[in-house]
Design brief:
Immunoglobulin-like; single chain; nine-stranded mixed beta sheet; 3 helices
């Protein structure tokens, strides 16, 4: 600094370079949001299942609980009908297995394994994998969709009592 002190205008040049350095540093640390999407604007599923909107029918936290590949699977989730009349949803899985539910208007239908019978007879995927379900709604507006849902087993305590057991077969 002693060498530069004798040159006229040095203090001003030092101040300007310091201001420029601070400005560049501030832009470097805060400029990330200028080119990246803000995480608070992204909608994510914060549950074990997946979400889907099918016209007037909203599906939330949909998943399947099963013991093993080839075993029955219970469909779990919350379904909400925004239409004025009932919507019947047919859920089809592997090897022609299917189940059907009716969702009343403005009343959430919660499939939680306690009182529902939304069970697919055969799962094509093992627990830990993804099962592809074909969905078909009928009612005021007919829609179709494909939904890839996680298959879970009874390892987690909240699903332990929801794993369907194979229906006993009667022997003649």
């Amino acid at each position: 600094m002693r060498i530069a002190s004798g040159i006229p205008g040095t203090k001003r040049a030092q101040r300007l370079s310091l201001i420029a350095a601070i400005g560049i540093g501030a832009m470097a640390f805060t400029g990330c949001s200028a080119i990246n999407q803000q995480s608070t604007t992204m909608e994510v599923t914060v549950s074990d299942g997946v979400n889907l909107n099918m016209g007037s029918l909203e599906l939330r936290n949909v998943l399947v609980v099963s013991k093993a590949e080839g075993s029955p699977g219970r469909v779990l989730g919350t379904f909400y009908n925004k239409a004025d009349s009932d919507i019947t949803l047919t859920i089809s899985g592997a090897q022609g297995s299917q189940t059907e539910i009716t969702v009343k208007p403005s009343v959430p239908l919660v499939l939680n394994g306690e009182s529902d019978k939304a069970i697919l007879s055969t799962m094509g995927a093992a627990p830990g994998a993804i099962e592809t379900l074909e969905l078909r709604s009928s009612g005021a507006a007919s829609e179709t969709a494909t939904l890839k849902v996680p298959v879970l087993d009874g390892t987690l305590s909240e699903y332990k009592n929801m794993v369907p057991t194979a229906e006993p077969t009667s022997t003649p």
